[in-house]
């Protein structure tokens, strides 16, 4: 009997290490996702004004997670150097740091966040600092910038090795 327990324990440990700690099944956050079509992040960012205030569904690799409260995630776009933030109300949904590198489908309302020159500089300087890069205020227009983000209502981490392709 003791041998069977030991073998079972070794098999369990081996299966955990074999998956590399990846999410083995879908994990739902908040209300999950129900919008019928997944939009490419690059398409959303190419014409954000057309989607403001609408429920959108996107999918991408998690490249950033709020370290303080788990209240946002950044999803990488299908195009280099693009990402979109999915922001959720503090405490309503909590994204754990372990999501880094996982594929996440998220949905919510697209919103615009206008930033004055001063606020844009502070935000972009903070982003650059997090990336270990230098920041030059000369790149910020005097009128400021507008950020687009998704006010998230739900998300689903796709099962390891599975991903839905964007329907376009």
Descriptive labels:
single chain; 168 residues; alpha+beta; OB fold (Dihydrolipoamide Acetyltransferase, E2P); five-stranded mixed beta barrel; 3 helices; 22% helix; globular; disordered N terminus
Can you put this structure into words, describing what you see?
The protein has 168 residues and is α+β, with helices and mostly antiparallel strands. It has one domain: OB fold (Dihydrolipoamide Acetyltransferase, E2P) (Beta Barrel), CATH 2.40.50. It contains three helices and six strands. Strands 2-3-4-6-5 form a five-stranded mixed β-barrel. The N terminus is likely disordered.
Annotation, overall tally of beta strands: 6
Question: How much of the polypeptide forms β-strand, as a percent range?
Answer: 25-35%
Annotation field: number of helices: 3
Taking all Cα atoms into account, the compactness measure Rg is 19 Å
Shape: globular
What would you call the structural class? alpha+beta
CATH class: Mainly Beta
Order of helices and strands: HEHEEEEHE
- CATH homology superfamily name: Nucleic acid-binding proteins
Domain unit count: 1
Strand order of the largest sheet: 2-3-4-6-5
- Specify the biggest β-sheet: 5 strands, mixed, barrel
CATH architecture: Beta Barrel
Low-confidence stretches: 1-23
